[in-house]
Here is the input.
Amino acid sequence: MKEMKGFVALRDSGLGEAVASFNSLASQRGVCRAGFSLMTYERIGEDLIVCLPGGSHLAPSVRSPYDVETLVPRMRGIGAMAAAGEIGVLSRSDVQRIFDTLSSKGYRIVGPTVRDGSVMWETIQAVSGLPIGWRDHQEPGRYRLEQSGSKDLFGVVHGPQSLKPFAFTPREPLVQIERSKDGFTARPTPPRQEKVAIIGARACDLAGLAIQDQIFLQGEYQDTYYATRREGLFIIAVNCTRALQTCFCASMDTGPCAKNGFDLALTEVDDQLLVQAGSEAGSDLLSVLSLSPASQELTREGALRVDACAQSQVRRLDRTRLPQALYDAHEHPRWDDVAARCLACANCTMVCPTCFCHKVEETPDLTRQNSAHARLWDSCFTQAHGYIHGKNIRPTIKDRYRMWLTHKLASWIDQFGTSGCVGCGRCITWCPVGIDLTEELSVLLKPSEQRSTSSRQQEASGR
Amino acid sequence: MPKCDAEKNQPKLGVFKFTSCDGCQLSLLNLEDDLLALGQALDIAYFPEASSKMNPGPYDLALVEGAITTEEDAHRIRSVREQTKVLVTIGACATSGGIQALRNWADVDSFKQVVYPSPHYIHSLKTSTPISEHVHVDFELWGCPIDKGQLLRVITDLLAGVQPQVPVESVCLECKRRGNVCVMVAKGLACLGPVTRAGCGAICPSMGRDCYGCFGPTEGARKGPGFPPNTTSLANYFHSGLQLIPVDVLRRFRGINGYASSFKQESERWDKKT
Here is the structure.
């Protein structure tokens, strides 16, 4: 049986001992203590397969019953890569090589840049365009950047934008309509295909993009506008080594380690970056870069930091009883409470990586001979969104918040087979009044004696 | 909405000014290239700001700028209404009473004494009120000043005989579509964007400033459908989250559209706390 380099995979029966052993190791090294959720990579049959970074330091009695050949094809993420020895290393001062290689391949490079007190995706030519040394602090309704003085390239976790705008763009011209003698002609206005390399996507962003792909690309009706934009994307993910107060990807099983959906993934470990490929295009780039393989020590350290990031997350979302528990909470009085705070401003849906609602806007010219037909980001929180055929089916803010949260966390599962939430926490941070869906959900899932005003009103009116 | 008579002849347009700064009429002149097209689509019969040729009514479409602040205003708007098929108010003054509606919470006579050497020449009402408090209004276009693109859209739609399509959603949607960073979350500014109607293109937040509500409340404004925006939650957060003292919360809502019903109610709620 081969040993995995620096890792050990365990059956859940051996967990207790392993975690104790890991915690003792972790405390010596000044990192967070291990828990159960952070290290879960895969389930094989009945067994929960847990990878403990630094496993070679563990007591021999907790070594893996699995060998590398069994495990690697079933695992994803940094653990699998490390096990297969596919991680390269690049010093921070050499990251410009990635930029140069991408530029020479004809990519426009987009990365997070400091703007107006946050980071936004902008075209950048060089590493110096990244938010070097900056860190973001996020809490409900509040975002602040701080310069730490470090040389970290990816110290900022994220800004308000996910990957959503790259493929599902805020305003997409669809068709130009012209009146003709015997009717009208409609000329599609497809976007220009462009090669865009995005550096600095997070695991939650990748999970969000996977959901957008599912909505726009799968099934019978593919959206060609989305597809054209999506095809040109080359995504360089960054594994998170620092969790925000608002992060809860670990509980949504979407991060902080990028599992798939990237071309390259980076893990910043002090002045070095671990580089792994996640696609053929990524492997090609990796071979052009011809990096030296990362040492076991460094790989282990990277994995340890990513796991520590998961462990340090203070928010979580309890999915165990979803979707049914939220359907059952339809008349919970908490909906009245949150509706009193919600502004129906739509910020949560705009920043959400998975919200895909849009409207189609018709802009005729004065002569009424031409009209531009465009798709715009829309939101279920607007007045017009609930309007159908002479009636508004969601007239109140309560109707809208309840519909949004129930769709996002419950009926999305029935509709698409996954949660509509990826745990990025953006809706918490960018809500102007700091409404926190994890808090709302935890209250909504507690049974209440009271009922909501709507059910009381319905009863009073004899319905 | 009565359809403008576009087929027979050019529909006649009248542009009328009441108590206002003329900025919204300038938005019409600022249409530039589109103004030529507008001149072909409409007979611009009465527009003293643009031309000294003033043709009498009746008019198919009247664009009304300004609030009612004098007896003469109140009389004249009734005359305009009688001569007009479709009456559209343009701008904050005509739609909510404008910045001069601040007098509605104050004593106009004392202002006259302070400002004018001969106050007895000034004959104005104690209040500044929107056009809709005096005559029936067919459509209200918000803004201080209005957005010229929205104005063109309203005219285009009216000429086509359909209900004008302008959004009643919040400014936040425009901000996010433009890729702005939220000034409230990232800078702690007391921004009215979440309760303010879109249409300006989020000009102020795009320049790093907080929205001051010049496009009026979102849905539920006087003629709008639905419910008023949740100004109470936003005001409470200005106070508890952003540490604005009550008088500052009051001032946020008592601005250019301070007399619009939901902003008015909110500022009066904070008036009791100061």
Notes: The radius of gyration of chain A is 24 Å. Chain A touches chain B through 49 residues (CB under 8 Å). Chain A has 17 helices and 19 strands. Confidence is low (pLDDT under 50) at residues 1-7, 26-42, 53-57 of chain A.
